[in-house]
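INFO  loader      accepted 1 record
INFO  loader      residues=735
INFO  predictor   begin
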Amino acid sequence: MPSPDFDDVSGVLRPKKRGKSLGKLLGLSTVLGLGLVAWIKLSSGKMAPPPGRQSAVPAGDSASLRQKVERLTGGHTRVVWARDFGHGKDTFANGTELQLMGLDTREPNGERPLVPGRGNFSRPLLSPDGSTVFFSRREATGAGDGARWQSTIHAVAWQGGPPRRLRSGYAVDAWRDPDKGEVWIYALTMLRDGIGANPEGYRLFRFRADDPGSEEVVWEHGLINGDNLQLNRAGTAASGLIPWPNAGTFDFTSGRFIRYRNGCWPSLAPDDSGVVWVFDGTHENLRLFLPGVDGNWRVPMESVESLKGKAAYHPRWSNDPRIISFTGPHPVKVAEGSGKVSVILARFNANLTGLEESVSLRNASGEPDCYPDVWVAEGEQVNLAAGKIGSKRVQELAAMPRAAAAAWTAAPEGLCFVWERSTANNQISATPRECSVTPQRHARYGPQFDLLTEGGAFVVDEASAAAIREALAGREWSMELAVTPLAPGNPQPQVIFRAGPAMELQQSQVDFIIRTGLRDWVVGAGLSAGRTTHLVLGNPIAPDGPPVVWMNGQAQPVIPLEEAVRDALPHAVGTEVQFGSRADASAAWAGRLEGVAFHARPLDPVVASGHASWWKDRLTKLVPAPRTVVRAKLKEASPRATPDSIGAYRRSWTSAVYEKTALISGPDPGAVFGVAHWTLLDRTLLTGPPGTPGEERELILEAMADHPEMDSEHGSEEILAGDQRLFLDMAPPGQ
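INFO  predictor   done
INFO  writer      dumping tokens
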């Protein structure tokens, strides 16, 4: 079974006809080194390359801080960032009250503005030799969801001079070709309209820094988030979000996107080790991965003293794989203002399992900083030790022979929609088209990264919905899905899947009801709460006949529903395509769904049988998480987030500390323990727990460690002591 944290799925990388072939320029995967690049002349005058890593730090008022930085990084260092003078609320650098700042450890006067005055300085980037800063100026016409974004890319020499406008676009990384020495700027264009916190574009391209008119398309198949795309040294891969929160890496040589998990701020190590991190939803931990290894490890940020109980933002690798930067400490409600937030530099230990030292660049003004980028002299010559990266278990896994893992794969012929799980690419490669679902109301993702419809529904993206409706109208279709009810069936049918009036799949007590057009059919399924059933449906062979149904690999008898019963059932109108209910939230079904595929072709019995065997094998290996039922008294709860305080997130949980009064069943959580309660879903505040300190209640709990899907959700652990265990409240949200 493939790891839920790792998927390798096809994408498409296509060079634009203009200019040289991208495949030729990026087919340098065997080149591992990176020499120090000569300075690119972007403004008048010339400048010698920066001093080497071994030079001494000159004395001066800021010598102490500069010495601390060089002790951390090992040599001459430059840092660039944006400083927010807009009342400390512009964490994502959308406004015009920003100042472009820089610090050079070999300059005696400390930090200084690199460009006079204030404006928009979004995502500043240092060139591979540290001599030039690239930045973007974003500007919105209109407001709210009607905002339309324009962006231009600029460059300024570190030593000063007027900025030079290069071209339109939003710059996301600067990379040097190790063979030719050319510096390329990677940028987004076709920016998404709306007031999103982060820039997103439908097209990733690159151009040469010394020839801004050059242009090569890198990716144009889906929405790409601007935070945080970062290339490896060879230029064969980059971290990315397509879009947030789907984090992974672009593999430019194979044209595939490798998805690791949901999260934010992914970053790829600047050497060629392939190590990638994904930031979790609390903004307190990095989750690191090695390519091809079925495992990952966590690096907590709380080892940085100022971050204990607080959040970090803007994490990014420098050109040295041991040195990273980020900003903090941020409050949980970041949109309400970040306060005194500084750039922080930190050094990984040798195997990247922890941060061993850090330095804050705290300035006297008290204005918050954002989006740092760091250059270290000769940092491009540092390489992580192969075979010694990660936790002991990850190192063991990396040393094992890597056999190709079996996987559930939807047949590509006639594929209209595919949704394996939230960490999969879910892409139709022939189009190519990214399939997606949007959770509504209380819908959320489960521990297998499945669709959890309890209290809500998942709406299929419009392009996929149109393809499904077209297949049903053409009367040649088939559908596959794994269904797990969470509660005993209701006599009143509940909607598992609906595709307008042409089709509904329902559960009625223990049976499936399939509504096709004006006819209803019954399959005696024997459904029960907590048990997974693999189901495949196919269009009727005869015009008025029943659909073809396979369940757990076996063909099933299908009988018509009695006319009197059928006429008594409510019939809905509307063309929505969604899982878990109808558009008006009626006939809501509580359960889990995964492995969904819809085809514009009849059922293939061979595929149905083969996939059923795969599911049977998978389910025998799944071990349910231990569940605890306990009575406990609330001691303390962290503040609830609000829709305006969580940025682009749509869901948030609040941590609470409880004191046990009685253990009813399951493992003992301890005398005092933490619980995560959902308090905001679909950007709507929930009633219910945590409640008031002193209040006692019965809790149904599972260890947070058994719920990796929560890593990417917004939440806070700020009130928890370091040794307190954290559990997830398993009761329906808001109750």
